[in-house]
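Troubleshooting log. The previous structure file for this entry was overwritten by mistake, so regenerating from the original sequence record. Sequence copied from the archived sheet and checked twice against the printout by T.R.
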Amino acid sequence: MRLFIEQLITKKEVGFWFLFFLLNSLLFLPWYLMDMENTQFFPVSYLIEGSLYDRLKSIFNRYNYDIFRLSLDFFLLTISAYLLSKWFSKSIRSLMIFFIVLYLLLLFYQLYSSFFQQIYSVTPLFFNDFTLLKNGYQIFISSFSFNTFLLCIATVLLIGGIVITLKLMLGYITQLKFGIISWGFVVVFIVMGAMSFYRYKKIVMPNFGFQMISKLIVDNIQSSFQTMEAVNNMNFQRLEDYNKSIEFDLRVKPNIYVLFIESYGRICLDNKELRTEYYQWMDSMQIRLKDENWSVASALSEAPVKGGGSWVSYTSFTLGYSLKNRGVFRTFLEDEKIKKYNHFFRWLRNKGYKNYRLTSLVEPKNFSIPWDTYSAFYSVDQWIRFSDLDFQGKLVGAGPAPPDQYSLNYAYELIKEDNQKPFTLFFITKNSHNPFVSPTNIAEDWSSLNLKSNTGQKGESIFTKPSMDNYKNSIKYELRTVEDFIIKNGTNDDLFLIIGDHQPPVLTSRNAGFETPFHIISKDKELIHSFTAYGFKQALIPSVDIEPLKHEGFYSIFLREMKRHYGKDSTNLPPYLPNGINLDAK
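Regenerated output below.
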């Protein structure tokens, strides 16, 4: 009997299939790692709980991103390598290189795909993601440290280990004779894969037990070319028409602060760990603002991204156009028609405003930032950069950067020295960036933060896993910074727009929405009240029961209310575009 079994199942055959399943499972590891908090490593409950139909269905389709799935393309690639090794045994070296390259391509695509799907909650698209990938690479290289060096070493060792394992598996292939175990696996994989495709008519969903990763790559390439064509055929004539509809003069020109709070999302309202304290902060802040005669209005606004890509969010706000298709940004950046379009800040510049933009990050070495290009695109008249802040104190958070309290107040002092009115100041906060390492208290005197001896927290890598406690402290700090700034520096001539750019990465659940809080603060009660017509509530805590607006839709709201309250002629208001301007070719 033993001899019979050994004839049916050889050690080489067992070794081959062990390595096959090891490498196959590795292809699904990125999805598991990106969703560890919501995923069972062993999906046992799917197989033992529920009806028989549900248990059988979980073999083919389950929203638990475990590694126990089959890559049909890796399976077909392996079978092809087995057949080719028999037919072209002298070309095994070339075959081995080809096999390794294809496998690594599948693995790298899974890394890329899982990251963008889980962090940004968007379908990965090369055309859209090129800028983010390039910038991420440049930042990684320019901020090279001992930790990143170790990460590079670990990556090289991992790839080396994968290559060695692949070579070992291919070595088994050249000597392998299919026995009962091999034919059994082949039959099961073909039958189960065919059943999955017959049932779902697809083989590319990450929740499928049997899937074709290469089909995702092909679809991505095809969709990228289609998107590129759609972008090249956008109807820019509508920008010219819209320019005409928003042309009017102002009799009152309030200074406008546009403050995007990094990672300030709806999670503050939905998460049990955050909600109680968040309500307390906002109630306290509203009382203090009311005591100083400030009026407030708040709503939830749907951001175009979920857990990252701040520039996509605030640029959509600026343009009044959704950049959910992020690849369009590269087209817009250099397009002459866009340079003539009166977006939020260019419209204000044309009304006599001077546009200041604060960016307090320590600029990475060997990282070229096209300041002139961004100035032209965003209509920035003056940048206030880290080098302008004269900061000698302790840097904090990812980046790193000075405490936001210091940066915001220092920028304000520079603007006062210019004696420029009206003006806009745009700032996206830095201390609430993932992994949410921020100061914990507001200083009585913001300038005291510039002392070398001041206490604080050191900068942290963006690769550090965030905690909910750190996130809570960071958002509280940012809201306290804004509150302190408004009460100490705000005047009757000021209008504050305080907006979350997106939900916090990693901490936000898979099923959470894209909404972020949006606050408007002014001493003009009538102006504040007018925003209730669009879903704003006259309070600092936005309502979760009212349909959220959209970041790209606010520009049209802003123009309507500026004309209604501050225009020389308050008739014929500009059109309300809740979804932003439509530039589709049709």
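DSSP finds 23 helices and ten strands in the chain. Archived copy saved in two places this time.
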